[in-house]
Amino acid sequence: MRITKLISSAVLALSLTASVTYAGSHATTLTIATVNNGDMIRMQGLTDDFTAKTGHKVEWVTLEENVLRQRVTTDITTKGGAFDIMTIGMYETPIWGANGWLVPLDDLSADYNVGDLLPAMAGGLSHEGTLYAAPFYGESSMVMYRTDLMKKAGLEMPDAPSWNFIAKAARAMTDRDNDINGICLRGKAGWGEGGAFITAMSNSFGARWFDEDWNAQFDTREWSDTLNFFVNMMSDAGPAGYATNGFNENLSLFQQGKCGMWIDATVAASFVTNPNDSTVADSVGFALAPDNGMGVRSNWLWAWALAIPAGTQKEGAAKEFIEWATSNSYIELVAANEGWANVPPGARTSLYENANYKDIPFAKMTLESILSADPLNSTVDPSPYVGIQFAAIPEFAGIATDVSQEFSAAYAGQQSIDEALAKAQAITNDAMEAAGYR
Amino acid sequence: MARSVKNQQKMVNTVIAWTIGLLIFFPVLWTVLTSFKTEGQAINDPPLFLFFDWTLENYAIVQERSDYMKFLWNSIFIAGGSTLLGILIAVPAAWSMAFVPTKRTKDILLWMLSTKMLPAVGVLYPIYIGCIKLGLLDSRLALVIILMLINLPIIVWMLYTYFREIPRDILEASRMDGASLWKEIIYVLTPMAIPGIASTILLNLILAWNESFWTLNLTAAKAGTLTAFIASYSSPEGLFFAKLSAASTMAIAPILILGWFSQKQLVRGLTFGAVK
Question: φ and ψ at A241, to 5 degrees?
Fold first, then answer.
């Protein structure tokens, strides 16, 4: 009996040692490039949980969004191998996936439950049906408005407003004497700043960037209507200098009670309802992004996602990390540590079925916004590109940055809307011709 | 009367100098002040100048989130290493151009300076690929070499200008006394040129410390400098101004202190010649 006990103890000890040695020999250090935002920083703080479960260590390289884009693009196009995991968006993923620069995520474990990813997110992060990046968090855009100011103006915000209602409400809520602007919107140059907003807005006015033969469409009435509507509304009800306002500037204005409405990323909902930062936290309502009665809303779709560059030596460990960071158990880990309002939103269907999350005031509208965004059919008339606030072609970022600069100059009164549109038309057609599309 | 006019002129000059100085320094002062505010106070409109609840919270968060000492050491190593290497190469180069010029010397000097006109991004891919092939990506050695090469034209130009003012007779006298070439450079030229070399070193240290294009593009987790440390707190989606200011203050503090203590040396070296 004693001998049997001794033998079993020895076998147990040996197998334990063997398993630790096995785990140790496979443990590695992953280098992950990421952006600086609340959800990503939270993930960095919880990395110990991943290390405890797998033995793998993680080194973070956190960069500003535009610097990160340049950095990871250089690395992936030269196969530099500086990173084992990259944080990329919906714009890069299908392009890089098509080029063979990313490892397909087609063999994730059954526990991970790929089918639980929101279809819009999984679709936007795939190329020809293959998932190339796993969504860490997703966002659309929606209307955030001051319920007290809306009431004071004698209006009631519908769940799905039109642009005409938004303009009417913006003018009614404006109180220049008390420094309250009816509406705050992005006008800042940059394809991901004002360019993203005006492109999403133009979709609801029936405009599109290109016709089916890749000809620029800025000479159409729809684009003229979009810009004229935007400039008129912002001149009457927007903040001074809106041509240089981006996400952060408008967030700051809204949190200080200087905006009646703000149409922007759904992730902003947690900022404006956080009483530690926002002076109007208890009087914020939400609605879908407006439409113009043409069947397309002006909300966008975006995801920050984790992808593995092709050629990494640590593919297995990288997949383990992605499964950990984008799983349901990670969401529960964040909820346990930081509360349900701080879990990464917009990636998994099950989150919106969770009773705890349903109590969050902006959860319902965030989900509805995401579900109503369709990157495959983003325009009223057919278009040759995928994407809502962008066209998923490599040339788009450069072209849209130039075009948005012309638009911002028009917002600032440095040129007329017609001049800005004429320049946008020429810039886009020239670039598309040089790239061989036309 | 004349003295009164002179005093008045002096006072006006002093006021103008202080005004310009404060205007130049104001962004730095504002960054430091913002680092002691909460995120809410940092975006307050109207801006809060001195009367707010001062907090060290941002510094605590930055310390907790980032390994400041790693970034600081990388900055010291890379800025110091590239400066030292640059001086070792530039002193003999400047000596030969100043004291043994050829008919091509001026062309070479102008060509060296012209390399500074090339946008850095134009050579990003060749240098990036070179680093990959040599296994030097995300290494301090690569940045020491690259920053040295980038700043070498300025070092050579500064030393050349300085050396030219040293009388040739003194060097010739040392040669007549039997000094070899290296002894002439090390024991005669260098001691006479110490103010110029010191100011060149200081300027180059500042340039290398503040360099951000290469230090951001060629590093990842290991060789990141304080510029990468600052970049990690910048965000277009989220308010991090107070934390960004704390990170910026921590990044500029060492070079600001160095500049403060060595300002006399720096100004003297940049404005005086070797024999004045």
Answer: 70, 30
Cβ atoms of B208 and B78 closer than 8 Å: yes
State the DSSP code for B188.
I
CATH topology of domain B59-271: MetI-like fold (1.10.3720)
Whether the Cβ atoms of residue A347 and residue A135 lie closer than 8 Å to each other: yes
- Are A163 and A292 in contact by the 8 Å Cβ rule? The answer is yes
CB A248 within 8 A of CB B239: yes
**Residues of chain B contacting A267 with CB distance shorter than 8 Å:** 237
Domain ranges of chain B: 59-271
Biggest CA-to-CA distance, chain B: 74
Give the residue from chain B lying closest to A264, CA to CA: B237
Number of separate domains in chain A: 2
> pLDDT tens for residues A67-82?
888 899 999 999 899 9
Task: Identify the H or E element spanning A31.
Answer: strand A29-35
Cα dihedral A411→A416→A420→A422 (10° resolution): 160
Q: Which two tokens stand for residue A188?
A: 């800042």
The closest CB to that of B239, out of A41, A81, A252, belongs to: A252
Is A64 in the B-facing interface, judged by CB distances under 8 Å? yes
Count Cβ atoms within 10 A of the Cβ of residue A373 and give its class: 0-12 exposed, 13-18 middle, 19 or more buried: buried
Q: Which residues of B touch A70 (CB under 8 A)?
A: 217
- The label of the residue with tokens 């579900």 reads A371
Q: Tell me which chain B residues have a C-beta less than 8 angstroms from the C-beta of A276.
A: 40
Give the domain extent around A134: 29-139+302-358
Do residues A101 and A77 lie in contact, with contact meaning Cβ atoms separated by under 8 Å? Answer: yes
* Complex-level ipTM: 0.81
**Non-local CB neighbours of A355 within 8 Å, separated by 6+ positions:** none
* Beta pairing partners, A291: A162, A297
Q: Alpha carbon of A312 to those of A32, A59, A78, A101: distances in Å?
A: 12, 15, 13, 11
Closest Cβ–Cβ partner in A67, A78, A83 for B129: A78
pTM for the full model? 0.84
Put simply, the answer to whether A82 touches B138 (Cβ < 8 Å) is yes
Chain segment A142-154, per-residue pLDDT in tens:
999 999 999 999 9
